UniProtKB/TrEMBL annotation:
Domain of life according to the entry: Bacteria
Species of provenance: Amnibacterium soli
Pfam families: MazG
Protein name: NTP pyrophosphohydrolase MazG-like domain-containing protein
InterPro entries assigned: MazG-like_dom (IPR004518), NTP-PPase_MazG-like_N (IPR048015), NTP_PyrPHydrolase_MazG (IPR011551)
Limits of the NTP pyrophosphohydrolase MazG-like domain: 29-104
Amino acid sequence: MTDASELDRLVAVMARLRRPDGCPWDAEQTHGSLVRYLLEETAELVEAIETHDVPAMREELGDVLYQVLFHADLAAATPGEGFDIEDVARDTAAKMVGRHPHVFGDAEAADADAVVEVWEAQKRREKADRTSVLDGVPMAMPSLLLAEKLVGRAERAGLEVRAGVPVPDDEDALGDALLDTVIASAAKGLDAERALRSALRRFTARIREVEAQPDPEA
Protein backbone atom coordinates (compact mmCIF):
# COMPACT_ATOMS: atom_id res chain seq x y z
CA MET A 1 0.00 0.00 0.00
CA THR A 2 1.31 3.44 -0.90
CA ASP A 3 0.20 5.03 2.38
CA ALA A 4 1.92 2.34 4.43
CA SER A 5 5.14 2.61 2.44
CA GLU A 6 5.22 6.39 2.82
CA LEU A 7 4.61 6.06 6.56
CA ASP A 8 7.42 3.53 6.75
CA ARG A 9 9.63 6.01 4.88
CA LEU A 10 8.86 8.74 7.40
CA VAL A 11 9.69 6.37 10.26
CA ALA A 12 12.98 5.59 8.51
CA VAL A 13 13.73 9.31 8.10
CA MET A 14 13.23 9.78 11.82
CA ALA A 15 15.47 6.82 12.62
CA ARG A 16 18.19 8.17 10.31
CA LEU A 17 18.11 11.59 11.91
CA ARG A 18 18.33 10.10 15.38
CA ARG A 19 21.30 7.85 14.62
CA PRO A 20 24.69 8.72 16.19
CA ASP A 21 25.84 10.00 12.79
CA GLY A 22 22.58 11.82 12.20
CA CYS A 23 21.38 15.27 13.29
CA PRO A 24 22.99 16.59 16.51
CA TRP A 25 19.87 18.63 17.39
CA ASP A 26 17.57 15.62 17.05
CA ALA A 27 19.94 13.52 19.13
CA GLU A 28 19.79 16.00 22.02
CA GLN A 29 16.01 16.17 22.31
CA THR A 30 13.98 14.72 25.17
CA HIS A 31 10.27 14.25 25.73
CA GLY A 32 10.33 17.42 27.81
CA SER A 33 12.21 19.55 25.32
CA LEU A 34 9.77 18.58 22.57
CA VAL A 35 6.63 19.64 24.43
CA ARG A 36 6.78 23.22 23.15
CA TYR A 37 6.99 21.97 19.56
CA LEU A 38 4.06 19.61 20.03
CA LEU A 39 2.00 22.50 21.37
CA GLU A 40 3.07 24.79 18.53
CA GLU A 41 2.38 22.24 15.80
CA THR A 42 -0.98 21.38 17.32
CA ALA A 43 -1.92 25.06 17.46
CA GLU A 44 -0.92 25.48 13.81
CA LEU A 45 -3.06 22.49 12.84
CA VAL A 46 -6.03 23.93 14.71
CA GLU A 47 -5.53 27.22 12.88
CA ALA A 48 -5.47 25.45 9.52
CA ILE A 49 -8.65 23.53 10.34
CA GLU A 50 -10.53 26.56 11.59
CA THR A 51 -9.54 28.67 8.58
CA HIS A 52 -10.36 25.83 6.15
CA ASP A 53 -6.84 25.97 4.71
CA VAL A 54 -6.59 22.48 3.22
CA PRO A 55 -2.95 22.64 2.03
CA ALA A 56 -1.89 23.93 5.44
CA MET A 57 -3.97 21.23 7.12
CA ARG A 58 -2.12 18.57 5.17
CA GLU A 59 1.23 20.08 6.13
CA GLU A 60 0.37 20.57 9.80
CA LEU A 61 -1.03 17.05 10.14
CA GLY A 62 2.36 15.88 8.95
CA ASP A 63 4.10 18.03 11.54
CA VAL A 64 1.93 16.65 14.34
CA LEU A 65 2.49 13.12 13.07
CA TYR A 66 6.23 13.77 13.10
CA GLN A 67 6.03 14.80 16.74
CA VAL A 68 4.28 11.51 17.55
CA LEU A 69 7.00 9.58 15.74
CA PHE A 70 9.69 11.59 17.51
CA HIS A 71 8.33 10.76 20.96
CA ALA A 72 7.90 7.10 20.04
CA ASP A 73 11.47 6.92 18.74
CA LEU A 74 12.73 8.53 21.94
CA ALA A 75 10.77 6.03 24.01
CA ALA A 76 12.27 3.13 22.08
CA ALA A 77 15.75 4.38 22.93
CA THR A 78 15.09 5.36 26.54
CA PRO A 79 15.75 2.80 29.29
CA GLY A 80 12.64 2.15 31.30
CA GLU A 81 10.27 3.19 28.52
CA GLY A 82 10.90 0.66 25.78
CA PHE A 83 7.99 1.15 23.40
CA ASP A 84 7.97 2.22 19.77
CA ILE A 85 5.49 3.48 17.20
CA GLU A 86 4.27 -0.07 16.50
CA ASP A 87 3.35 -0.44 20.16
CA VAL A 88 1.56 2.92 20.09
CA ALA A 89 -0.39 1.93 16.98
CA ARG A 90 -1.24 -1.51 18.40
CA ASP A 91 -2.49 -0.09 21.70
CA THR A 92 -4.53 2.59 19.98
CA ALA A 93 -6.15 0.16 17.57
CA ALA A 94 -7.06 -2.13 20.47
CA LYS A 95 -8.51 0.79 22.40
CA MET A 96 -10.60 1.99 19.45
CA VAL A 97 -11.97 -1.51 18.84
CA GLY A 98 -12.75 -1.91 22.54
CA ARG A 99 -14.53 1.43 22.74
CA HIS A 100 -16.67 0.75 19.69
CA PRO A 101 -18.52 -2.44 20.65
CA HIS A 102 -21.45 -1.15 18.58
CA VAL A 103 -19.21 -1.59 15.51
CA PHE A 104 -16.93 -4.48 16.44
CA GLY A 105 -19.16 -6.26 18.94
CA ASP A 106 -22.78 -6.88 19.90
CA ALA A 107 -23.65 -3.53 21.47
CA GLU A 108 -26.12 -1.17 19.83
CA ALA A 109 -25.93 2.58 19.37
CA ALA A 110 -28.57 4.16 17.18
CA ASP A 111 -27.24 7.71 17.16
CA ALA A 112 -24.27 9.86 18.17
CA ASP A 113 -25.56 10.38 21.72
CA ALA A 114 -25.81 6.63 22.22
CA VAL A 115 -22.29 6.23 20.87
CA VAL A 116 -21.01 8.67 23.50
CA GLU A 117 -22.76 6.66 26.22
CA VAL A 118 -21.21 3.42 24.97
CA TRP A 119 -17.79 5.11 24.77
CA GLU A 120 -18.00 6.48 28.32
CA ALA A 121 -19.23 3.17 29.73
CA GLN A 122 -16.33 1.31 28.13
CA LYS A 123 -13.88 3.96 29.29
CA ARG A 124 -15.14 3.61 32.87
CA ARG A 125 -14.53 -0.14 32.68
CA GLU A 126 -11.01 0.42 31.39
CA LYS A 127 -10.27 3.03 34.05
CA ALA A 128 -11.94 1.23 36.95
CA ASP A 129 -9.12 2.29 39.28
CA ARG A 130 -10.09 5.94 39.00
CA THR A 131 -11.83 7.28 42.09
CA SER A 132 -12.88 10.72 40.87
CA VAL A 133 -14.59 12.08 37.75
CA LEU A 134 -11.68 14.52 37.64
CA ASP A 135 -9.10 11.77 37.20
CA GLY A 136 -7.51 12.00 33.78
CA VAL A 137 -8.55 15.62 33.17
CA PRO A 138 -5.43 17.56 32.05
CA MET A 139 -5.67 20.78 34.05
CA ALA A 140 -3.22 22.49 31.68
CA MET A 141 -5.82 22.46 28.89
CA PRO A 142 -6.79 25.84 27.42
CA SER A 143 -9.12 27.41 29.95
CA LEU A 144 -12.30 27.44 27.88
CA LEU A 145 -11.85 23.82 26.84
CA LEU A 146 -11.10 22.93 30.44
CA ALA A 147 -14.25 24.72 31.57
CA GLU A 148 -16.40 22.68 29.17
CA LYS A 149 -14.69 19.47 30.26
CA LEU A 150 -15.21 20.24 33.94
CA VAL A 151 -18.88 21.09 33.42
CA GLY A 152 -19.39 17.64 31.91
CA ARG A 153 -17.51 15.97 34.76
CA ALA A 154 -19.49 17.97 37.34
CA GLU A 155 -22.75 16.66 35.90
CA ARG A 156 -21.41 13.10 36.13
CA ALA A 157 -20.58 13.73 39.78
CA GLY A 158 -24.15 14.84 40.45
CA LEU A 159 -23.40 18.56 40.81
CA GLU A 160 -26.24 20.61 39.37
CA VAL A 161 -24.86 23.08 36.85
CA ARG A 162 -27.00 25.93 35.63
CA ALA A 163 -26.07 28.87 33.42
CA GLY A 164 -25.99 32.09 35.40
CA VAL A 165 -26.10 34.48 32.47
CA PRO A 166 -27.92 34.59 29.12
CA VAL A 167 -25.85 33.67 26.08
CA PRO A 168 -26.25 34.48 22.38
CA ASP A 169 -27.86 31.96 20.06
CA ASP A 170 -24.94 31.55 17.64
CA GLU A 171 -21.20 31.10 17.96
CA ASP A 172 -20.25 34.31 16.15
CA ALA A 173 -22.24 36.36 18.63
CA LEU A 174 -20.91 34.27 21.51
CA GLY A 175 -17.35 34.90 20.35
CA ASP A 176 -18.01 38.63 20.19
CA ALA A 177 -19.49 38.54 23.70
CA LEU A 178 -16.46 36.67 25.05
CA LEU A 179 -14.11 39.13 23.35
CA ASP A 180 -16.09 42.07 24.77
CA THR A 181 -15.66 40.54 28.23
CA VAL A 182 -11.90 40.27 27.74
CA ILE A 183 -11.69 43.86 26.45
CA ALA A 184 -13.73 45.20 29.37
CA SER A 185 -11.65 43.14 31.81
CA ALA A 186 -8.39 44.48 30.42
CA ALA A 187 -9.72 48.04 30.67
CA LYS A 188 -10.21 47.45 34.39
CA GLY A 189 -6.78 45.87 34.78
CA LEU A 190 -8.20 42.38 35.26
CA ASP A 191 -6.59 39.22 33.84
CA ALA A 192 -9.43 37.25 32.22
CA GLU A 193 -7.34 34.09 31.81
CA ARG A 194 -6.21 34.08 35.42
CA ALA A 195 -9.74 34.88 36.58
CA LEU A 196 -11.23 31.95 34.68
CA ARG A 197 -8.57 29.55 35.91
CA SER A 198 -9.19 30.69 39.48
CA ALA A 199 -12.91 30.09 38.97
CA LEU A 200 -12.16 26.63 37.59
CA ARG A 201 -10.09 25.78 40.65
CA ARG A 202 -13.02 26.75 42.85
CA PHE A 203 -15.35 24.74 40.60
CA THR A 204 -13.02 21.74 40.85
CA ALA A 205 -13.12 22.02 44.64
CA ARG A 206 -16.94 21.99 44.52
CA ILE A 207 -16.88 18.82 42.42
CA ARG A 208 -14.59 17.13 44.93
CA GLU A 209 -16.87 18.22 47.79
CA VAL A 210 -19.84 16.59 46.05
CA GLU A 211 -17.85 13.42 45.48
CA ALA A 212 -16.83 13.32 49.14
CA GLN A 213 -20.42 13.39 50.35
CA PRO A 214 -21.82 10.00 51.49
CA ASP A 215 -24.00 8.22 48.94
CA PRO A 216 -27.56 8.34 50.33
CA GLU A 217 -28.37 5.06 48.58
CA ALA A 218 -25.34 3.24 49.99
